[in-house]
Amino acid sequence: MTSSLLPFFHPQGVVIIGASTSPEKLGYGVARNLIQSGYKGAIHFVSQKSGELFGHPLYTNLQDVPDPVDLAILIVPTQATPQTIEDCGRRGIKAAVIVSAGFREVGAEGAALEKQCVEVAQKHGVRLLGPNCIGTLISRSTQRFSSRPCLRRAALVLSRIQERSAPPSWIGRASRDSGSLKSSVWATRPT
Predict the structure, then answer these.
(1) Is pTM beyond 0.85 here?
(2) C-alpha to C-alpha distance for 183 and 123, rounded to whole angstroms
(3) Strands 71-74 and 127-129
(4) What pairs with residue 118 in β-bridges?
(5) Running DSSP on this structure, what letter comes out for residue 188?
């Protein structure tokens, strides 16, 4: 795996931009999933309001977030995404997952906004995953940087299969058959 992809799977620190203290909000669910996954690195939250979430401070400015942080999970309004990527680049964050929707899939205006996100990311050397991304999961450890609680079950299924050195196609089939994943599965064998 190239070093530019490492923050997506083995980050030293994660910041959720768009974290929320409201349980019905996506920013709350992603934060909860990260905490419950057992992730051992630094966890930071950025929100419009200061306070605390799961024992961690809520920062109102990304520049105030302490190191280490090398992965940002963006749960912001679509129109704010390019500026948020710009902020990540200026902060030195080199990987970002865009959870937000409303880009190319909604038409020409969304496609132009998606193109702007890519241009800003390229300017700052930020790798992007998304938009419309539910995140990543580390199957060997059940760590998930995701908006989907069902990925915990998928991670357990995948880790059990990987222990038996199953071919990648079996991993995808078992995930689908277990009901853990409702969308496409891309699996590759580690080298």
Answers:
(1) no
(2) 32
(3) unpaired
(4) none
(5) -
3-state secondary structure of 75: coil
Determine the 3-state secondary structure of 191 from DSSP. Answer: coil
**CA proximity to 41, closest of 126, 174, 157, 138:** 138
Q: What is the tens place of the pLDDT at every residue in 72-124?
A: 999 999 999 999 999 999 999 999 999 999 999 999 999 999 999 999 999 99
Kind and range of the H or E element at 177? helix 168-178
Indicate whether 158 pLDDT > 60.
no
Q: How far apart are CA 47 and CA 27, in angstroms?
A: 9
* pLDDT for 43 beyond 50: yes
Amino acid at 44: H
What's the pLDDT at 149? 52
Q: Report helix angle 150-163 to 168-178, nearest 10.
A: 140
